[in-house]
Amino acid sequence: MTEKRYRFDTERRQFVTGLAALPLLATWPGHGRTQNPAAPVVPELRGIRFELSVGASPVNLTGKSAWAKTVNGSLPAPTLRWREGDTVELRVGNRLREDTSLHWHGILLPAGMDGVPGLSFHGIAPGESYLYRFRVRQAGTYWYHAHSSLQEAVGVYGAIVIDPREPDPIAADRDHVILLSDWSDEDPHAIVRKLRKQSDYYNLHKRTVGDFFRDARRDGFDAAVADRKAWGRMRMSPTDLADVTGLTYTYLVNGAPPAANWTALFARGEKVRLRFINGSAMTFFDVRIPGLRMTVVAADGQPVHPVSVDEFRIGVAETLDVVVEPAERPYTIFAQAMDRGGYARATLSPRSGLQADVPPLDPRPILTMQDMGHGGMAGHDMSQMKGMEGGCGADMKMPAMQHAGHDMSGGMIAHPASETGNPAVDMQTMTPSRALDDPGIGLRGNGRRVLSYADLKSTFADPDGREPGREIELHLTGNMERYTWGFDGIPFSKADPVRLNYGERLRIVLVNDTMMEHPIHLHGMWSDLENADGEFHVRKHTISVPPGHVRSYRVTADALGRWAYHCHMLLHMELGMFREVRVDA
Amino acid sequence: MLLFLMCFALPALAQHEGHDMSQMSSQPSASDKPQATSPAPLPAPTTEERAAAFPDLHGMDMRDHMDDDPVIGMLQFDELEWQRSSGTSGDDAGLAWNLRSWLGRVDDRLWLRSEGERRDGRTEHGDIELLWGHATGPWWDAMLGVRHDFGQGHPRDWAAFGVQGLAPYKFEAAATAYVGDSGRLAARAEAEYELLLTNRFILQPKLEVNLYSRDDPENGIGQGLSDAEFGLRLRYEIRREFAPYLGYVWSRKFGATADLAQAAGGDRSEAQWVAGVRFWF
Ligand SMILES: [Cu+2]
Q: Domain Plastocyanin-like, which positions (chain A) (predicted)?
């Protein structure tokens, strides 16, 4: 397995020894070093002053050597351990030949410390450094990553664990960061170019002639034909679950590919807190630990009412803390990609070197018309739609609904005029769902208790009890064939900033007019997700919107400055699903 | 709701963040307040706070650093094949190509299309088109440009305009009208489909028809529907970018064009085996 092990570059060794004064601790001395030798140990940095250096390092995660971009030579970047209330200083140097940046995901801070080049600061030029300094006003599990070009996809991401000032209400004897990510030996820019040339490049699971006959036998010939017709009219594929797949991705836990079997240790009788972070560029994971119930205790760093589940889906950029009470035997932490094209895997074990069975991947799900927001209309036949431009319903002109955000009936939804006849918009949802209780495509009725957003309830009441003073509705849009993304059919480069008034409480309504799920992240402020009745439900920093769904959440615009607001699927962001949110006084 | 009432049993957790702009002022923190009440209005920010929130970026803008519509180019030989007639008038082998390339962004692209056949070491007929393609909707591009015919016979130049895109049921389609010298008109329509036998074995039926407004005996063309070609090619995608194939192509000439062909000792219709490679980069 040694060839799977990533190598520290020599620069890093020099760097570490050159900073002897800095505490560089393994999480639990005595355990950290007894990791499975094939899996890297992610360094942990603790304290209030941090020296971080972004550079390039050779890695071998697939059996072939490649170059990663790393922080302090480590992939993932060192875990940063902060304490709530402390003022932390992070000096970030750049040893790349291009600009870089680090962004502290989900952390409330002054705009100048947010780390988005061109919005909140200049970026960090080669050979230069930037001093981030801010007071830590929250506790929990977060992460950080580069916000420059596609550097996040090639290794510049790491965990942040913030210990609360008060004793942690989440009782655990030990905790482990489980940072999930996706790795490709291909340059992410090359992946972008391929998708622009052939957007289904990485989908090798499209339905075939054989699938048609199988469906015809199972559902009847007419039903199989009708289904092919509905998808054919839309010029879409129900197998389109991920833009980039296991065809090029290797899925990692804490930087370790499945074969390296990264191992988290525990002692008999211990309660173990697992801090799941999805630091992927493009991959949603469905996570379970066969044989073990997980009690979800926090989402996006914020405490939630404990809920016991067998499995959860974690969107890109989301974090989820669970507590488990393992018996004295090894367990597999199994994180399969949403499209079932591969998995990340680790072992939770009383001793290193043990492993449990790795379950087979679940069957690949197939999207349905319901998933696309075409449900709810009994017998709705796509062939009734006249004029194919705009696919499903682009030419349905409807008067704008007053207060679309409050229409909880699951009825028809109005679409912005900018979507009509727009080459960047290939579909529109018609009867989207507002329910939070759908575990999602591929997880319904699988015999396991699967977490949904309906299960995530903050342990606190709405921290800003005001009724939102206004509402901003944005539609998530894209064109799968042309591989372009945006809000309301408009890419970032052509969009005006979304303007918020300092101090206001407002509602953001997101309507997903695409066939993909999008995890939408607002920098600098919280996103207080509402339930279908318009009541405060759970506080998050990243709100995932499945296809065929509407999500609404409240934001208190208490952070002056220019903030990024974007889909956290990195290629969606890069190709336009991005807005500047500007909070002015 | 009940659940929210229950929340009061677990206080003290979320209060830390609230609305305390700790970096900016000594405003009281939210944790001093009861929950679920409106926070006090935020005081107007000071000049320093404002300056810190909107740092001078010296003209730098994120737009300059994020290219959401990069210029991309694709060179694709949809067909590059060896053809062999299994027909009546003896052994006949040749080479044929069909090239579709583009360079540009999402909405506007420069297209280069070319197709033709070579036999006995010379180009029997071929054409090359240079077109500007502009996206008019999610699946269609309007095309405008020029076409040049070459090979045996009289070379001709045409102005070209048409559409190209993805029809319902995922038929790739293109229809182009041409205006030549002294009002000569022509039209060409193409449609193809990809039938997935497996995800790597792909059967591609393809139909092309040509029409002309006038007789053009120099080029063996008669007025009206001149010819149609239907091909079936089975390719194996070793990679997406590289797929060898085998196929069978039926072509047929109609009306005056067929008469001209026959007069020249050719066939009205022809069937050929083809073997080739489809590749792009
Ligand atoms: Cu997205």
A: 57-166, 175-348, 468-584
Give the gap in angstroms from C-alpha A272 to the nearest C-alpha of chain B.
20
| A520 CA distance to ligand 1 middle (Å) | 7
Pairing of strands A561-567, A518-522: antiparallel
**Torsion angles phi and psi, residue B177, rounded to 5:** -110, 145
Residue A14 phi, psi (nearest 5): -60, -40
* B152-181 residues touching A, CB cutoff 8 A: 166-170
Contact (CB<8Å) A112/B167: no
What residues does the ion ligand 1 have nearby, CB within 5 Å? A 518, 567, 569, 572
The predicted-structure confidence for A354-371, as pLDDT tens digits, reads as follows 999 999 999 999 998 878
Rounded CA separation A149/A130 (Å): 18
Chain A window 208-227: which residues touch B at a Cβ cutoff of 8 Å? Answer: 208-210
Per-residue confidence band for B90, with pLDDT thresholds at 50, 70 and 90: low
Residue A407 has, within 13 A of its CA and on its CB side, a CA count of: 16
Class of residue A181 by CB neighbours under 10 A (exposed 0-12, middle 13-18, buried 19+): buried
For chain A positions 73-132, those within 8 Å of chain B (CB to CB) are 84, 99, 108-112, 116-123
Which chain A residues touch B77 with a CB distance below 8 Å?
none
- Is the pLDDT at B14 greater than 90? The verdict is no
pTM (2 decimals)? 0.88
Residue B38 binned pLDDT confidence (cut-offs 50, 70, 90): low
Chain A residues within 8 A of B63 when measuring between CB atoms: 118, 492-493
Instruction: Specify the pLDDT at position A40.
Output: 79
Please report which confidence band the pLDDT of residue B182 belongs to, taking 50, 70 and 90 as the band edges.
confident
Which chain A residue has its CA at the smallest distance from B38's CA?
A465
Q: Does residue B10 sit at the A interface (CB-CB below 8 Å)?
A: yes
A115: left (phi over 0), alpha (psi -120 to 50) or beta: left
Which residues face A519 on adjacent strands? Answer: A544
Enumerate the β-bridge partners of residue B64.
none
Nearest residue, CB atoms, A423 vs list B11, B107, B196: B107
Contacts of A431 by beta carbon, 8 Å cutoff, 6+ apart: A373, A374, A375, A376, A377, A410, A411, A412, A413
A398 vs B219, residue with greater confidence: B219
Q: With an 8 Å Cβ cutoff, are A580 and B62 in contact?
A: yes
The pLDDT, as a whole number, for residue A378 is: 33
3-state secondary structure of B108: strand
State residue A26's pLDDT score.
30
CB A552 within 8 A of CB A408: no
The predicted structure's pLDDT at residue B120:
86
* Residue A76 preceded by cis peptide, ω within 30: yes
List of chain B residues whose C-beta atoms are within 8 Å of the C-beta of residue A465: 36-38
Amino acid sitting at position B260 = L
Q: Give the per-residue pLDDT at B88.
A: 56
Percent helix, strand and coil across chain A, each to the nearest 5: 15, 35, 50
Helices A221-234, A209-219: inter-axial angle, 10-degree rounding = 130
| Contact at CB, A138 and B44, closer than 8 angstroms | no
pLDDT of residue A372: 77
Chain A residue nearest residue B108, CA to CA: A423
Question: Residues in chain A with pLDDT < 50?
Answer: 1-37, 376-410
Q: How far from A197 is each of A483, B72, B135, B278, B279, CA to CA, in Å? A: 8, 8, 15, 15, 13
**Which pLDDT score is estimated for A38?**
61
Q: What is the mean pLDDT of residues B210-217?
A: 94
* B279 CA to centre of ligand 1 in angstroms: 30
The pLDDT-based confidence of B66 (bands split at 50, 70, 90) is confident
The yes-or-no verdict on residue B130 having pLDDT over 80 is yes
Residue A171 touches chain B, beta carbons under 8 Å: no
